[in-house]
């Protein structure tokens, strides 16, 4: 099977792990700390970012959205009713729109700040940007997560899943990012019951089990992190 270069609390890597698990695929996980800028990794992906999927054939697929599209193109037809990207063009547009919302917008406004400041900096040297967290960045992320949570609640109040009637890449992208924020205890679940109930549904899926087992050394998760009924 393929190798997946990832960092356990890189939310976009978590999204790809969920996708692979939903497809019944078990890659070899290779932990990669992008800030180390390893020469061997840069030869695979010059951008130096995770996630990266490396097929046994030697094909390199970099980036969460590109990996998702690639997996749909190469494995999607074999999933029948469990396909994570709809077959109809309109449905595909909506899934792609929401996938971009979470992999890019949510990452840029929430997860990127919190993971960098609270987790990554713990493992970086001072020359790599390590040190105490920037509390202004953390406060901004905590403010931003609120309107994202409301948007999830708005969508799920009108649909069975975020993009429509079926579980899709949109749900997995949103849940992957929220899982990182939830580990840190920074999701105000009490502010939107619809969003919380949707997340509990996704969190209860077998594909989520390995994510819930992830831990940061010296930093235990929020008390409810692995609780399926929270």
TrEMBL record:
InterPro entries associated with the record: Glutathione-S-Trfase_C-like (IPR010987), Glutathione-S-Trfase_C_sf (IPR036282), Glutathione_S-Trfase (IPR040079), Glutathione_S-Trfase_N (IPR004045), GST_C (IPR004046), Thioredoxin-like_sf (IPR036249)
Gene Ontology MF, one: glutathione transferase activity
Name of the protein this chain belongs to: Glutathione S-transferase
Native source organism of the sequence: Methylobacterium persicinum
Top EC class of this enzyme: transferase
Segments forming domain GST N-terminal: 1-79
Alphabetical keyword list: Transferase
EC annotation from Swiss-Prot or TrEMBL: 2.5.1.18
Gene3D superfamilies: 1.20.1050.10, Glutaredoxin
